[in-house]
Amino acid sequence: MGKSIGTKVRRIDGMQKATGKAIYGDDITLPGMLNAAVRYVDIAAGKITNLDISKAEKMPGVRAIASYSDIIGSPRIGLVRQDHLPIIDDEIRYHGDVVAVVAAASKIEAQAAADAIEISYQSYEPITDPQEAVKPTTRLIHPEYNSNIVVHYPLIKGDADKALSESEHVIERTYNTGFVEHAYIEPETVTAAPDHTTGGVQIYGSIQNQYTTRKMVASFMGLNLNQVNVMPSNLGGSFGGKDDIANCMACRTALLTKMTSKPVKLTYNRENSIRESYKRHPYIMKYKVGFRPDGKIKAMGIDILADSGAYGALTFFVNWRSVVQATGPYEIEHVRTDIKGVYTNNCYTSAFRGFGSPQIVFAQESLMDEIASLCNISPLEIRRINGYRQDSITASGQKLHKHTVSLQQVIDEAVAKSSYHDIRSEYKQKNESSKRYKYGIGLACSFRGCSLGAEGTDFSSAIVSVQADSSVIVFVGVNENGQGLRTSLSLIAADALGINLGDIVFLEPQTSTIADGGPTVASRGTMVGGNAVLDAAQQIKSNIFSVIKDELQVTKLEETIWSDGKICKAKSKNEFISFKAAVQKTYAAGVNLSAYGWFKGPKVNWEETTGQGDAYFTYVYGCQIAQVKVDTYTGKIEVEKVTAAHDVGKVINRLGAEGQIFGGVTQGIGYGVLEDLNTQAGVIKSKNLDEYLIPTIKDVPHIEAILVENPDKYGPYGAKSLGEPPIELTAAAINNAYAFACGKFNYRIPLTLEQVQLGKNLRKPERQSAEKQAHNKRKSPYLADITTSKPKKLSAALDILADEKHKILAGGTDILVTARHVQTSLQLVDISSLPELKGITENEDELIISAGETFSRIVSNSRIKKIFPLLVEACKKIGSLQIRNRATIGGNIVNAAPCADSVPPLIAYDAKVKLVSSTKERIIPLATFIEHGYKTGIKKNELLTEIIIPKLRTENIYHSYYQLGRRNSMSITRMSVSIILIFDDKDIITSARLVDGAMFSRPQRIYDVEDKLLGNKLTDNLILAIEKPLSDKIESEIGGRWSAVYKKPVFISLCQEALLDILRQRKEDK
Amino acid sequence: MNTINFEVNGKKVTLTVPDNMRLLDILRDELGLMGTKEGCGIGECGACTVIMNKEAVNSCLVLATHLQDAKIETIENLDKDKILSLLKEAFLDHGAIQCGFCTPGMLMSAKALLDKNPNPTIDEIKTDLEGNLCRCTGYIPIIQSIQAVIKKGV
Predict the structure, then answer these.
(1) Predicted TM-score (pTM) above 0.95
(2) Which ipTM did the prediction report?
């Protein structure tokens, strides 16, 4: 083995990506290309009674509209069950169903035409609870099948029921996980083009499994496989997510290409992506476990219900993996597992990194900690007692003897590296005295079957082609998702041939060029792709060897070493021939320098009725330890460190391997804490990345990556899987850390603020806000009819505004977001360059901020920082730097979002606003200017020009500010508190200002609390005493609201905490 | 329609475009500069980050009218830009690029930071990059890359 394997190597496609030159699906432009847009249904379940495309057809730029009747081949696709319609007929199964696709000259024209398609419906009550869906009397989501049960996998080992009845202790627990969105940064995009050579189509775009896409398109279009060539572009992330949806998009664009004879591109915006693309399966998992008092588990009965959503997709495979692994890496004599995947009218679910493991690992690892606690033993001890060892028998009856069972090893490594024992003691002690924050450390471990296992036919292909000048081309059948597959497989090829990585070019797979290599899933890319590359390299080496063996005086290939560009005699290394010279001779001799490599996975087997068999040909083991800090006042969980130990067999590219751990753990943090997909009655409410929260740079802790190597006999150089194991453990480790910190067990993830504080999530009841009523006409999100004018002077702007039809455009960070949903034409006056609206000035009594000043200028202004620190602290929390560089304080105030961050501090500071029209000027207090959410007292012809803040000219002034957001950046403020207290020299509070943010109908001074504080010394008792007036105020303002049960106690705690903060500041000053 | 005069990567540009065209669309569709990407359309992901008048901005929220006399820098300027080139080498050395879709935006934010402050603390790095989402790398190699460039000296 050469020296590159296992080291840190630069990825070979890094340069093109760094320079912005790498071609992703949406970067493709072909001559004559049209742009497409989809028309979604408007309800989650029902029947279409009328479809009218007549208006849409006549709209500008439209070339074709494809609906069900235009489908040429088979309208139903699906890898296992053909239940999925890329363009539906009349049956609506979920809110992301597509009823028609429009091809037009431009994307906006296509979207406008799609919006103009009129549909009439007969609605059904959507079925969204799998527990309802599974009942035999419930309406069939797919009447063409006779059950809502998509698949059922049983597993029977021994006699679990009997063993449970005989167990000394029995515990029953139910765990729940929800929908999870892949949230790859690149939204889906597919382009189809006519292929006149084959009479078929060429497909490009963000496609993960090109052979599946080819199969689906061929079937949908009535073409042969050899007439569909799928050429995936660079993938901007996939994680299993660009499979079924890419297939649907490919079918739609292929159809439009046929109808128009032109290339057609369909690129999704983020809203389309979240609405339509499949998610991770929510699981309801019931575990019944029988165990001995010493912690030895005797029996497990496991029932899992998986929400398959509208279509079966890969539920068949996802659920199968779960049935194999549901017990966790524990040797248990008696196991009964039953998993059922059911149809509902929710978004359909399919492959997502982990593929049926993150859910069960969360359940089983949480359960292990709870059992350990009941037995009074440590989480380590219970795993030592029950965990797999060499030759253990799994739940499916497989003996683990063909690989190194390294479960205990990865646990030991993670424990050692994280100083688990010391931290555990330290946290126990800390928690005794710490009131607000509790600290926890928790671990989770797992085993995972590599590659497809008995669920699929496991083979892969590679072509290695050595050119006459000894440069090499490598093609494989598996796909670069971004994980670094090109680099790993090129490293393997380079190493096998003994040449430099730089001599290899890795070309993109096209389905017509290289045989089906199977999907790039199941963390199989390196293993099976790598083995196929090795097979091809071996054939080439044999061929070259046959030409040069006499010259080197050797008889067998094994007598040579291929390294550093030379082929030398193993016994005498200074006798060699250069690779280059050897290639030249081989070429001259007319001997083949290319080879087709093939790898077929070792035999595995599965018995359907008993769930017994050798499920996977090998396994990997992992252990993660998470350290968390829990804010018991708000429910916010800070993940402070994750130690991740993974047995990978052999590291091929160290940077790539660490990258998989960092990225997987980060997704795991999202899964465990942040990613709460809000869906109600089948409609997804978390529409974009402002509502569906993935970890930002500030949400990721220190991650310690430990790569354990126990080379596997089946993997190239002993390498196994790493793509998925890192994501499956983190949420479980966090959940266990939380239990340690707070002394209670949690049965549902994500651990959102509400899940922690209340044990459940809160959902806004269905009602239309005023804004929604105003823009009731359904519309795809994009900027439609906008006209802008840009007056050079304020007076000119005011004249334009006098006609009251115009809206104001400053930084654009609010209006250009909401304008995407506006159907009617918008006339905007661009005031962003008006010199009169810029400047921060002060006089003796006041500081004046012009309304057009951006937040980045405000937060970096030393005068504002000094005199009005609350304003700076609050404004730093707004959006991101990119937003703060554009967003203006005037815009923030006039938009008057309930969570507008600049407003509460300004009210605390008694700020006033100046409003100017072409005829008059007025100055009013900000507190009265804001009337309620999204409503101010501004008149249509007025502009807010200045924010005037009176200076507080006194010593003994103290501030405290706290903002609660769900994550550490780009967080909509859930609530905030701004406090200013002024004391006299006898420590009496002479002035008190306390303002809420995002609590009441508008931010306001809470006078009842201020009155309680005034005239008193600030003491612990006084701080406790504010609870009553504050509680009464909250109750009267928002008592009946759906969010009050969370917000009330939290806001009271935060106000008290802010006052305690001031108390601490005063103590420090003394 | 709007006729705008502005500068992209040091070159003067005059374009007449519809009022509703965003800078992101102008770069990609009018000027053929595909390095800047669209991830969300609402300023939440940062994939569309470019530098406008020395500040990092989301080009999906900049309209044509905003561009009059603006100076725009995009990832396509990398080969001519010292800091971007240093950052690129560091990103490659530290494994800060996986799928690469967030990379142009990430590099532009990093460049804007280092142009403003050649020696930021780790908190300052995180604050200036908080508007760039990455789903692949876990951000750690990205931070390490920027720290490596700082250490080397800009």
Answers:
(1) yes
(2) 0.99
